[in-house]
Design brief:
2 copies of one chain form a homodimer. The first copy, chain A, is of the alpha/beta class. Chain A is built from 34 helices and 33 strands. In chain A, the strands form 7 sheets. Chain A has an 8-stranded mixed β-sheet. The first copy, chain A, has an 8-stranded parallel beta barrel with strand order 26-27-28-29-30-31-32-33, surrounded by 5 helices. In chain A, α18 links the parallel β18 and β19. The radius of gyration of chain A is 32 Å and the shape is elongated. The C terminus of chain A is likely disordered. Chains A and B meet through α25, α27, α28, α30 and α31 of A and α25, α27, α28, α30 and α31 of B.
């Protein structure tokens, strides 16, 4: 006997999502705990993998297994699949191990044909229903199996409604739908090149194949890449007895969450449509009613639904997202999965579940996806801003965004990748728009509800979305939109607030968000758990204050070059660079000193009592000079030419500047010391100063610069007759520095891994030249699984860091080790830093909460408490 | 009792050169074996180090020790130091552990003063001699101790000779010298600000200090840097009883070698001057007579000299270079050291000494400095060239050079560093010119003999030098020279042949040298000893043939991009880059294929039976496009702009090109396969082809490119219905490739370390931006001891290589490992490659012999046979 590929819902509860997919395992588990699930079975992901490996050959024995299980369904329902009089109808739904909402395909009402539709009409005494079901089958099957454009069917439907002078599908009568069905059969035959298949088993086989094939569609590939889902999982196929929400006014369909997915507020939350099939809700074509209204309309099913959902949450210890159908008053649950939610909701749910006794603190901390927290830390509209609301829609995904209107996904992708902030504005979105959604700052749709495609995807990505904005009309041909009273063109600027549903013409001031009480609680729990300290990268007193508010325990990287760029300072910087003698250069530097000191004072005050790492000047000097064509004098032109470099990344920068022009670093050290003394005087608390030398590759460089630092600081302190505790260290951002960390450690009080530059040199990737060029191709072609500038390259850069840590601690066990590249704010990289045994990570202020959580999760992982899989 | 700092020549023979310096230990050893050495003692290098550490304080007890040893000299010579009637006179000479010819300072005739000079005149009955000795003391002491310009004294001497109408110093009489002495005392007092010190002991103390201080003069530092001599050795000081070669016609002085230092021919070789002091020979002011003439003039001393030299060579088993003086017929040896020699001489001497039974083969191989061999492999004047000799001088250092005339060392340095070929043309050179000598292609002097400063330094550096060219007159003021009948200006082009002494106006064709019989013998011995294989980097059939002639055992790096640059090909390369579709690109590549195939065929034929590594296209495509301002079309301008990179070194190049434009690498692989088949047909011997992918950082890159290579080659072979053995491998030139050598090795048949780029990325040094900029400063300021692009950075790059070797061999013990960066031709780096266990090194064809020798020496070092120290 060969492998087994098919399991009935009554059999599979223990088999897990890897084999049955999320949808399949949910249906089996619900069946096992006695919830009202239609009968059905699941074809495993292994069958799909076999099929894909076999280049479209169904694995041997699969067809027979399916036949056996269809026979069991026939027995259970006392109907026959393909019967002409009272047919068993089936749906086919994909379901991968990791949720890919809207990406895979579904076909309903399999088993109908030209004869059976009449049988169904008689058996249900509902001709309208029977033809509605059949025309849906033709459309879905045509689209999914034969690639007949869905739009051709939709246009026909719209034209018919026009002719009848009605606006809703439900207003069409039985005759209308019979006529429409005939038309759909013609469209199918035209598009597919053959008549609609009348055999039920042939329909089923082709549908299963189509689901398998859908795993490799471009849109599925794009989604997987965006969500870092492996390509070789395959999808399961669920074959389910049809239940009908469209048999009349005693029927309906809906989706519901056990808690509010936007806020996390406890209590059932969702939407439903009377007399409709499930696809109508998700597609966002009709705008559904809130679930609360169901209580009045369907009191008994509503009660059953509430009980069922409570039971599900207890079972899963997780917020659930279900699809249900009411057929003539009877409730069926078609799917359950862990509910997608906003970051705010995720936090609130985790905290609430601890109060409710469903989770302990460690589980609550482990459960939050730190990457998602980013959305909580997105800007919102400034509460003090005055503005006029042009239109309102549903608050589908929180956060505010400003950008230029674009009307199609291709353009959104192009302009978004080009660095422009764009708002994608659409009647509704479909899975084909995914590449545009990824690049847009925010999404605005005219149709669709809180569970429409746009809303679900936007919440998953943490992007603002306003959906179902009735006042919006999109004229894609003219590249214009109407927004209430206003006419706007593509390219005009909009602001949307996905938290309130407001749409505003033009730009509105945005402010950074605050951390609410639940978030604070969760982060406090994380702080109790983690060992890794979290600092921020901040160059201004404002950023430092923000970082502290977000829980930063110091500054790990304060870049001093931005201070050189300000308008009133740049002339002195340029004069310094143009100086023809060291004395002249010193004179200009003396003029810059008070500015630097002032900046340092502000930062020290904001970080009172906490360590602040000041990095001395790093960029090549030519960055401070104007472009050649803007140079005002011949001398300036000569100097610009002399400073020009073939590869500035590997040129005269970092500590090389400090060795070539010691007077620059001397000035900076003096400014640091003076600022520290001034702040100590003013606040009574001396800052914990760390002076950091960039781009060291040789111990000798740091030996000399350490001496320069100590000599300069001592002279300042002696003159002021004062004491100051400070440390001298270096960035580790060259492969050689990692390799010779032992020698360099002998000269350093601390190391900070500069993983941006370390990635550039270790991989030989110039970030400027890689992103948007060969690196983008590498990611598209899957040469690389992740962008090494976002996710630390553990195999290369990470291994060099491990060598550095081992060698440095070998000679200097007490040396303080941290990281200040952008990876310091990437959760996976934070986990790696924990494994490496670093003392701290430093990241942008807005990523500090995320790093606090990721650090806690890394500590939990070490104790065996791993994150619960979110998504389902 | 404290440390002992002073040893008499009779005591020190066992103490070694580190403590006594080369000159001191030579004098002690000669004293021990009974050779005629004047009495004297040595102040140790340790005393110098103490003095330098103590910032100019003589170490405690030193003055007393010197006093004790002076007293012993007084006893031995029965004269008193400082005596007014018959004074003991002393010389003070520096002598470091490693020879630094002319770099340190000497003072003769210490002990004379205004009174003692009269005493000496009476005691010797030679007033002329006494005043000549005193005026020399004043000049040397003034120059060395007080920094009074030597030129001021020289001008005075020249003026006096003018007034007397004589051309030689010896033509001046006693009265003249008495007058000159009075004038010298005035010049001294003016320059030094005080009268010439009359106390002998004060003169001695100040002279010892001046020698110690001379260790840190800029010219000594430059010499040490150029010769990689550590800065912390210090110098010894030798205090020696004066003997006089200038007492009259029965006296003289000279330098002699035990064999000819230019050719290695056995037999005494040297020069002497009658009635002169040693400084007159070395300074090159008077042109001396050949040593053979001495036999007639001083028959008895000549015989003693010959016996002495035979004894010295037997003792040292090395060619010796001595200084001697004849005082009234008595021979004194003032110094012996290992003789500097040309590379050709070194080779011949080593081979001859094996025949003579002085050395065995291993010792002979170990003794040759491979770095010096470079000069044997320098170009010579094409024997077929016709040219007119404008002047002749002494053939002071072999090899030919062509370059622009420059008249001072500063300009030579500046233009030489700027990449211009220059010939430094001087009346004579002095140690102050060292920075110019380093950068010049060749040296031409009007005065001085085979042992003049210019000649000695040029031979050491392996640069051509023509010295003592009487027909040359330099007018430094007018920046012009006269050369025989011709008038030339600075900047005009000269060719010199240091092997023949010929000077030619304009450029003459140069040819590469051949390897002579002795060299062949030595290299054969080296080949028997070494384990490391030696290949060459060659891009053309001509270079491949040359490499094979020099003993290359294959090609380790054949770059294919040069083939793209040739005039008839570039238009197709550009059209290929501009192609708007893959098909169009393929069409242009098809046009390039025959050219590549032709090049490969030539190289395979030249290397028949030996492996050839072809590296696929490496440089960024923009290197093949014209500069933006020369672009002819808007499209070309757009493309140039699009391909522009911020850091091309880290951009779209190497295997990234092969992954982005697979059709380029496919064409190259096809050309390789077709060429291999054609050569197999023509010669009956299939070449051993290795196809190498550059700049791999990730195993996945090589996995794909290996597949592309195999697929393409298989298709070609299938079509031709042929078989071909070939290998696929990669350059290891990124730190990540070293770190993940295990994964990459799984995809590779061989690795070749590309240490040029590996150095750039590991150190973060762009070669273009480092050399001449911060790297030059780093070397000047001694942040780095050596240029890492010349000498492999063992601590950083080397350690990464060691990691790579270990990890690669861990998964693929049979993988072939080599190096093809420029370090493959650097002897120290070759030794490192041997230690690492690489299979081969690959270097430029002209460095192949050098690498063969270095590889043998590395194997010998492992067996404990280390190179004998050359220099002394």
């Amino acid at each position: 006997m060969g492998a087994r590929y098919v399991y009935d819902f009554t059999e599979g509860a223990h088999l897990g999502r890897d084999l049955l997919g999320g949808k399949g395992v949910g249906l089996a588990e619900m069946t096992a705990i006695g919830l009202p699930v239609p009968a059905g079975f699941t074809v495993t992901t292994e069958a799909c993998r076999e099929y894909l490996r076999g280049r479209g050959e169904l694995p041997p024995g699969l067809e027979e297994e399916i036949e056996t299980h269809v026979a069991r369904l026939e027995e259970a329902t006392a109907k026959r699949f393909g019967d002409a009089a009272n047919p068993l109808l089936l749906s086919v739904r994909s379901g991968a191990a990791i949720s890919m909402p809207g990406m895979m395909d579904t076909i309903l009402n399999l088993g109908l044909n030209d004869v059976a539709v009449e049988g169904l009409a008689r058996a249900t005494d509902n001709e309208r229903f029977a033809f509605d079901a059949y025309r849906r089958l033709i459309q879905m099957y045509g689209d999914v199996v034969e690639g007949v454009e869905a739009q051709r069917f939709e246009s026909e439907l719209a034209a018919l409604k026009d002719r009848r002078g009605v606006s809703q599908d439900v207003e069409l009568g039985a005759d209308d739908l019979r006529e429409l069905t005939a038309r759909f059969l013609e469209i199918y035959a035209e598009g597919a090149g053959h008549d609609f298949p009348q055999g039920a088993r042939r329909q089923l086989e082709r549908a299963v194949r189509a689901v398998f094939d859908s795993w490799d569609t471009p849109r599925a590939q794009v989604y997987r890449r965006a969500n870092r889902i492996p390509d070789d999982l395959g999808t399961a196929v669920n074959v389910v007895q049809m239940v009908f929400g469209n048999t009349g006014d005693r029927s309906g369909t809906g989706v519901a969450f056990t808690r509010d997915p936007a806020t996390g507020e406890p209590g059932m939350w969702g939407e439903f449509l009377v007399n409709a099939q499930g696809e109508d809700v998700v597609a966002g074509i009709r705008t559904p009613e809130p679930i609360a209204d169901m209580r009045e309309r369907f009191p008994e099913p509503y009660e059953r639904l509430a009980e069922t959902m409570a039971r599900l949450e207890e079972h899963y210890r997780e917020m659930q997202d279900i699809e249900f159908t009411i057929e003539d008053g009877a409730l069926y649950i078609l799917q359950t999965r862990t509910g997608k939610r906003t970051a705010a909701a995720a936090v609130r749910i985790a905290v609430d579940m601890v109060s409710e006794g469903l989770l302990n603190r460690e589980e609550a901390v482990a459960r939050i996806d730190p990457a998602q927290l980013d959305q909580l830390l997105h800007p919102m509209i400034d509460p003090a801003a005055e503005y006029e609301v042009a239109a309102r829609g549903l608050n589908a995904s929180p956060g505010a965004a400003t950008g230029a209107i674009v009307l199609d996904a291709d353009r959104a992708e192009e302009q978004g990748k080009g660095g422009e902030a764009v708002i994608l504005v659409r009647p509704e979105t479909t899975p084909d728009d995914i590449h545009g959604l990824i690049e847009a700052e925010g999404i605005l749709t005219a149709h669709g509800g809180m569970t429409s495609h746009a809303a679900v995807v936007a919440r998953g990505m943490g992007k603002p979305c306003v959906a179902g904005c009735d006042a919006l009309a999109v004229d894609a041909g003219a590249r214009r939109i109407r927004l209430g009273e206003r006419e706007l063109a593509e390219g005009d600027v909009l602001t949307i607030d996905g938290g309130s549903g407001e749409v505003i013409v033009g730009e509105v001031a945005l402010v950074p968000p605050q951390i609410d009480e639940n978030f604070e609680t969760l982060l406090d729990w994380a702080d109790e758990i983690r060992g890794l300290r979290v600092r921020a990268n901040a160059d201004t007193p404002e950023d430092a204050a923000k970082a502290r508010e977000f829980g930063a325990e110091g500054i790990g990287l304060c870049r001093t070059e931005h201070m050189f760029m300000a308008e009133e300072r740049l002339p002195h910087v340029r004069a310094m660079i143009m100086a023809s003698s060291r004395d002249e250069r010193r004179a200009e530097l003396d003029r810059l000193l008070p500015f630097q000191q002032e900046d340092f004072e502000g930062i020290f005050e904001a970080m009172a009592g906490l360590p602040v790492t000041i990095r001395l000047l790093d960029p090549p000097l030519h960055e401070f000079l104007p472009p050649l064509e803007e140079a005002e004098t011949d001398e300036m032109r000569r100097r610009i030419r002399a400073l020009r470099e073939a590869n500035p990344m590997l040129g005269t920068r970092g500590c090389r500047l400090g060795l070539l022009y010691p007077e620059i670093y001397e000035m900076q050290v003096r400014a640091v010391v003076r600022a520290a003394l001034a702040v100590a005087d003013r606040t009574g608390e001396a800052p914990l100063v760390e002076i950091m030398h960039p781009l060291v590759g040789f111990a000798e460089e740091l030996r000399r610069l350490r001496r320069l630092t100590l000599d300069t600081a001592s002279a300042e302190l002696e003159q002021a007759d004062r004491q100051l505790d400070y440390h001298v260290g270096t960035m580790i951002e060259l492969p050689r520095a990692c390799i010779r960390a032992d020698e360099i450690a002998a000269e350093a009080d601390f190391f900070s891994f500069g993983t941006n530059d370390l990635t550039q040199t270790t991989l030989g990737f110039s970030r400027d030249d890689a992103e948007g060029k060969f690196l983008t191709r590498y990611l598209e072609d899957r040469v690389l699984a992740a962008n090494p500038f976002e996710t630390l390259d553990r195999g290369g850069v990470g291994d060099l860091m491990a060598i550095a840590v081992e060698r440095a601690r070998g000679v200097a066990p007490e040396i303080k080790l941290g990281i200040c590249g952008e990876h310091g704010g990437d959760p996976g990289s934070v986990a790696f830093c924990h494994e490496l045994g670093l003392d701290y990570v430093s990241c942008s202020p807005y990523r500090v909460p995320l790093a606090r959580l990721a650090a806690a999760q890394a500590a939990l992982a070490e104790r065996g408490v791993v994150a619960v899989q979110v998504g389902g």
